[in-house]
Write a structure and sequence with these properties.
- The chain has about 375 residues and is mainly beta.
- The chain folds into two domains: about 5-185, Galactose-binding domain-like (Jelly Rolls); about 215-370, Galactose-binding domain-like (Jelly Rolls, Sandwich), CATH 2.60.120.260.
- The chain contains two helices and 29 strands.
- The strands form seven sheets. Strands 1, 5, 10, 12, 13 and 15 form a six-stranded mixed beta sheet that branches.
- Strand 7 (about 70) and strand 8 (about 70-75) form a beta hairpin.
- It is globular and about 75 Å long.
- This is DUF642 domain-containing protein.
- InterPro entries: DGR2-like_dom, Galactose-bd-like_sf, Pectin_Meth_Modulator.
């Protein structure tokens, strides 16, 4: 996305109060503070500052629950109001953050027109924008919650959400977005007891209290910040789901990852190792108690030194097994990879995608000369 003149002036001007970069909703992140009606033409926003605490450019619509496009009722993810981004449009909000710290932004999105709708997310000033593919709907609600992360390069930045050209004729066509929140990430450190960073998945994006859907974490290119510290999601357009113990069965602690996209996505982390070291990878595999019944659900776990297929017989009501993989480190770094070998839906017929849950992952390696000493 190009930085246009209007956005440049917004970044340089910074003449109004900015949202704090703490944990919780952005200012008017649910769009329930209404614009003045004279700033709207029907649903279309006609003044950049019409939506309180936001700036809008291009074809942006302020949507009320029950509004229609032709015969189709437009989905409002939460509450009574949301925003629809037409072709070549954007919304942005200024954030007050701490330079050098990592943050994750969470929001909900629902596709309305084109099959290949995508959203570009960026921080100005900051890195190149990231792309969130929203073609696949993972829940029966018609919308999903997504997360995107960044490292702050300034104390005052603009969060920008941009929707491009879908190749459709109607300029109003585009995704509906709602329920924006932010969380500062505090990545834990690896230890002798666990060489993996954030192996228990307790550090991750903001999950809105009361939201029963979890948060999707999209694929990442190498240079982007992960909303799940320590881990990367490798795929072309699919995601993994971040879940909490308030709404799901979690093997350990209060957070875990559900592999909802089968063979099309992998969860991985690269760890520094000493060649020849004896290593043990331990992890929990279970189900989220979301009706994901399958016998078995299969998880493939792999490193450069070994791989294993783990079968978990799920009745969709929760539970887990503790598993392990022993291997010898082959190089100065070792990639730990998890992926689901099947595609699953919840048993209620809603079409909600689901899969095996991974949690409480630990890796311990003992150098070869230490291992020999322990055997004596």
């Amino acid at each position: 996305m190009m930085l246009n003149g209007a956005l440049f002036l917004l970044v340089c001007g910074a003449a109004h109060a900015a949202a704090s970069g703490g944990d919780g909703p952005l200012l008017n992140g649910d769009f329930e503070y209404l614009p003045n009606r004279h700033q709207l033409n029907g649903m279309r926003v006609i003044e950049p500052q019409a939506i309180p605490h936001w700036r809008a450019t291009g074809h942006v619509e302020y949507v009320e629950a029950g509004a229609k496009q032709g015969d189709m009722v437009l989905t409002v993810p939460e509450g009574k109001h949301a925003v629809r981004l037409g072709t070549e449009s954007s919304i942005q909000q200024q954030l007050r953050v701490t330079r050098g710290k990592y943050y994750a932004v969470t929001f909900s999105a629902a596709r309305t027109c084109a099959q290949d709708e995508k959203l570009n997310v960026s921080i100005v000033p900051g890195d190149q924008p990231g792309e969130l593919p929203i073609q696949t709907v993972y829940t029966s609600s018609g919308w999903d919650s997504y997360s995107w992360a960044f490292q702050a390069t300034r104390g005052l930045v603009w969060f920008v959400l941009h929707h491009g050209d879908d190749g459709v004729d109607d300029p109003a066509c585009g995704p509906i977005v709602d329920n924006f929140a932010i969380r500062m990430l505090n990545p834990p450190q690896a230890t002798h007891d666990n060489m993996l960073v954030n192996g228990d998945f307790e550090e991750g994006p903001y999950i809105t209290p009361g939201s029963p859907w979890g948060v999707l974490m999209p694929p990442l290119i190498q240079d982007h910040v992960s909303p799940l510290p320590g881990w990367r999601i490798m795929a072309s357009s699919k995601v993994v789901k971040y879940i909490d113990s308030e709404h799901f069965s979690v093997p350990h602690g209060s957070r875990a990852v559900e592999l909802v996209a089968g063979l099309e996505v992998a969860l991985l982390q690269e760890v520094h190792t000493v060649p020849g070291s004896s290593c043990r990878l331990e992890f929990s595999v279970g189900d989220a108690a979301d009706g994901c019944a399958a016998s078995p659900m299969r998880v493939q776990v792999a490193t450069a030194g070994a791989s294993r297929t783990v079968d978990y017989n799920s009745n969709g009501t929760g539970g887990c097994n503790r598993e392990a993989l022993d291997f010898t480190a082959q190089a100065n770094s070792t990639m730990v990879v998890f992926y689901s070998m099947g595609y699953h839906m919840t048993s209620d017929g809603s079409g909600t995608l689901c899969g095996p849950v991974i949690d409480d992952v630990s890796l311990v390696c003992v150098p070869q000369h230490h291992a020999r000493r322990l055997l004596r």
